Amino acid sequence: xxxxxxxxxxxxxxxxxxxxxxxxxxxxxxxxxxxxxxxxxxxxxxxxxxxxxxxxxxxxxxxxxxxxxxxxxxxxxxxxxxxxxxxxxxxxxxxxxxxxxxxxxxxxxxxxxxxxxxxxxxxxxxxxxxxxxxxxxxxxxxxxxxxxxxxxxxxxxxxxxxxxxxxxxxxxxxxxxxxxxxxxxxxxxxxxxxxxxxxxxxxxxxxxxxxxxxxxxxxxxxxxxxxxxxxxxxxxxxxxxxxxxxxxxxxxxxxxxxxxxxxxxxxxxxxxxxxxxxxxxxxxxxxxxxxxxxxxxxxxxxxxxxxxxxxxxxxxxxxxxxxxxxxxxxxxxxxxxxxxxxxxxxxxxxxxxxxxxxxxxxxxxxxxxxxx
Length: 372
Hints:
Low-confidence stretches: none
Mean pLDDT: 93
Order of helices and strands: EEEEHHEEEHEHEHEHEHEHEHHEH
Helix content: 25-40%
CATH topology of the largest domain: TIM Barrel
CATH class of the largest domain: Alpha Beta
């Protein structure tokens, strides 16, 4: 177990989920301070960009392994294991507090004519669009994510002034009602206008790398920010040239991006992560990410999953069009919940909330309904 190359970089991915820790003292660990527990890690060693070892490690064997490894590798695993299990801090959204010890649903509210799934659905009247956001809250959404620029492949860039005119009147109405709001944008001026209008969180598909002022704006506002992975964020969220190992490469990219954003003045405790399902990724890449989501808990930050109505669903179901991807969307959302993702960004709020409530009921029974 200890014959890793000295220069190998080590990773831990929680695997072997269990329903309850009861009766398993020392044999299981908690996943991100939430409702999930697991009994083993997948231990991965990477050197020169390639996996050189991959083994299953029962949770109870980790302390013994740490005593056998070189100091740097032992410290790396110790840090990852602590990050994987640590509770995630509460996210402040104005007067509301979003607790991240269970999965929350974020509703997608696009004020756009050309978004891939719901472009033009909500109309152009700010009051009518805001009503759609209110309805999401009534249906159980803990957050409404407002966007004024489509990020679908091939979409034309929107002038920031037009983007501001689209989103600000909607955000003002939602914020006055107490609905937690995030602004989905890459542009610093739109972030500023949206935050001034009452938005609480910035959700950036470019991870604050598209606009040179973006980090400064978020740092000055002291607000939470969601950093999404995309291959070439300074240009297009759908660029890139493919991956040898998408899971490891995207983990490393996010780790580096967190460091850059923190160096720019953003508090680490205000950062959330999104692996960017569908952005510059093949079907195989997306499936690898969905199957390996728990690896990202090693970064110690909350995870948002945005897989709703994505192209991968159609690719797996006879090219089902966007309006017929509800079943696949709910499946991916529950996969995310099981993997410990704290935020599920979806179009179909009521259906996803119901699915999460049923999933939560099963989790609760696993924790308190043990025979004995």
